[in-house]
């Protein structure tokens, strides 16, 4: 059975094996980060929203733009933002010039949580990649960015149709 299982594994195309390895690696790294975030009462998605909004200060962003910038697609962005607003991590305000647009901004409380998480998250990332030499980490980052860019270009072309 072991020989047969090894043969099946080897029979998978390299792209399939790479895809699976990438998902497993991303999941393992994300689970480690989730532990740190959970200790501060945040999910990965909430942390991502706070970081996105910090970068959009002082203007804030519409819900749809936040959704486009998320690392992982969240099908119920409105509910996610509702929970964050109840915790005073964000504010939402309907725009007077266009009542259809609701701008979301990070609050002082949200910024404080981000500040407290900055060092622990940075240290975690350092630990996660410490077994790799810096040039290999840069190469990996470049390859992954290539994949992300390709995916973004394909998505843009689909939307343009």
Brief overview:
The protein is mainly alpha-helical and 161 residues long. It has helices spanning 2-11, 14-39, 44-55, 63-69, 77-86, 108-129, 134-160; strands at residues 61-62, 90-94, 102-106.
List the topology elements:
Blueprint: H1 2-11, H2 14-39, H3 44-55, E1 61-62, H4 63-69, H5 77-86, E2 90-94, E3 102-106, H6 108-129, H7 134-160
Antiparallel strand pairs: 1-3, 2-3
Give an overview in words.
The protein is 71% helix and 7% strand. Helix 2 crosses helix 6. The chain has helices at 2-11, 14-39, 44-55, 63-69, 77-86, 108-129, 134-160, and strands at residues 61-62, 90-94, 102-106. The mean pLDDT is 90. The chain is mainly alpha-helical. The chain has a three-stranded antiparallel beta sheet with strand order 1-3-2. The protein is built from seven helices and three strands; from the N terminus they run H-H-H-E-H-H-E-E-H-H.
Output mean pLDDT.
90
Anisotropy-based shape: globular
The proportion of residues forming helix, as a percent range, comes to over 70%
Sequence of secondary-structure elements:
HHHEHHEEHH
Q: Strand portion, in percent?
A: 5-15%
Task: Characterize the main sheet.
Answer: 3 strands, antiparallel
Regions with little confidence, pLDDT below 50 for 5+ residues: none
Class from helix and strand fractions:
mainly alpha
- The strand count comes to 3
Strand order of the largest sheet: 1-3-2
Calculate Rg over CA atoms: 20 Å
Span of the ends, CA to CA = 49 Å
If helices are DSSP runs of H or I spanning 4 or more residues, what is the number of helices? 7
